[in-house]
Amino acid sequence: MKQLIETIVKPLVDFPEDVHVNVNEEDQRITYYLTVNKTDMGKVIGKQGRVAKAIRTVVYAAGSSQQKKIFLEIGE
C-alpha cells in the first residue's frame, strides 16, 4: 500500500524525493501518513480537496480486502 501511495503522488509533485509515507498499524486500523514538500501541498490536496479525495478513494478501495480500517493522513 505504501508503494501505491508513492506511485500515485510522486508524478503530481515538483519534489518527488520529499514524498514519504509512514505507517502506523494498530489493532483495528492502519494509518498511512503522507508527507510532501511544503510547496507541493496544494498539488496533492487539489482544488476543494478533490485530488486528496481521489487518492483516498483509491487507497481505501485497494485496502478493502484487509480486515483493518485504513486511513490516509496528508501533511507537510
Automatic annotation (TrEMBL):
Keyword Cell wall biogenesis/degradation recorded: yes
Cellular localization per UniProt: Cytoplasm
Domain of life: Bacteria
SUPFAM superfamilies: Prokaryotic type KH domain (KH-domain type II) (SSF54814)
Pfam families the UniProt entry points to: KH_KhpA-B
InterPro entries assigned: KH_dom-like_a/b (IPR015946), KH_sf_prok-type (IPR009019), KhpA (IPR020627)
Description of how the protein assembles with itself and partners: Forms a complex with KhpB.
Function text: A probable RNA chaperone. Forms a complex with KhpB which binds to cellular RNA and controls its expression. Plays a role in peptidoglycan (PG) homeostasis and cell length regulation.
Family listed: Belongs to the KhpA RNA-binding protein family.
Family matches, as PANTHER family: RNA-BINDING PROTEIN KHPA, UPF0109 PROTEIN SCO5592
Protein name: RNA-binding protein KhpA
Native organism: Neobacillus driksii
